[in-house]
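Entry 12.
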Amino acid sequence: MATLWKQETTLHPTFDAMNRCLADDWFLLPFELRLQRAHASALTAAGILSADEHAALNRALDTIERNHGGGLVPVSQAEDIHTWLEEALTELAGEAGRKIHTARSRNDQVATLLVMFVIETGRGMGQALSRLVELLCRRAKDWSELAFPLLTHTQFAAPGTVGFWALRYAAALDRIRRHVKWLGGHWRESCPLGSGAVAGSSIPIDRRIQARELGFDGPSKNALASTSCRDEVLEYLAVAAQVSLHLQSFAADVISFAQTPLAWTIYPKAFATGSSMMPNKSNPDAMELLRGECCRIAAAHGQALLLMKGLPSGYNRDLQCIKPLLRDTAQSLGTMLELTTAFAEGLGFDAARLGEALKVGHVGATLQMEQKVKNGLPLREAHHAVANELAENPATVDVNGPRLVNQYQTIGSAAPAETRRVADELLAAIHKEK
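Predicted 3D structure (tokens):
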């Protein structure tokens, strides 16, 4: 049974290769097995399957899970994973296997599997983000007194601390982490299974059974929407792209900090390689690869949007192309988050080099201007006064990093005490959720 439809002619070999997607589907096997069990329960409740047939199907599914769970893609002429599994069920469970596809279509099957995968991989993303945010908060506290120049327009701008810089990523990624958690609840609201090919089924199965057994709140509300859309996939890819942008910025920062003229970082050797020709080189390859690999993650969201753009209502085969995008993005993002977490654990900074950097660029000028404002001078006059002082005698600007950063007083500022307070607040929120 290579196909679930009546094949009367041989497909052109080029199209046949494109049409077969068992290998691309294989990552969905654990979800497909759960789906089959839930559907078998609904068919039994509707009187389509007998109790013996239901039991036979469950035994067959157990056997398939034992033999193929976590394994390689089997050698098969099956068109896709749904066809392969129905063939296997028919071989192991006989007549019950020939009934399993009652009141459903591959259209609602694949829609359901993708939502199930998104829920699972979204949970994994949230956990990985929690680990990274926790680590960045701890590092922010460790480095909260380590002053260095913050940049705007890639120019030295104002005094800050390395801890404040690390907290910038903790705060941004924590926001996405909380958004992913909210999305997880949203994704579990509606189960597409039972929507059929496009308009449901005249066989009155109870879709609430399927939804309940698969961990959803209830059945989806419109069969046409369920089989036409991939909104959950788009939402997952969108947040993955957001995460990748922050990881790229993290990598770009570290690469900048590690460049020869600055040499601010104590770059962990386990994440660097040398040159095949230049014996003096130690290259920040891990961060360059992180920056490069994240392009693929961000691009996946754009590709999926284009894939969905202008599709008419109802299932269209274009939707097959979104599966490898989702699989590869989830895999790549997991690796990049793991890499960033391990790297941040090993990253160090050269306090002496950071202190020397504060002597360049007059980074204390803004605080000097604000001191004049606090002394009663209107801001614009204070701004011009400090500019004149810098032109006449640059040495008037304070370069004592610890003294400078402790002048910040606003919420969310670079003051060391504020960095530690916010880091503790983020950590407490994560720990409360555990």
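Annotation: The two ends are 48 Å apart (CA to CA). The longest strand covers residues 155-161.
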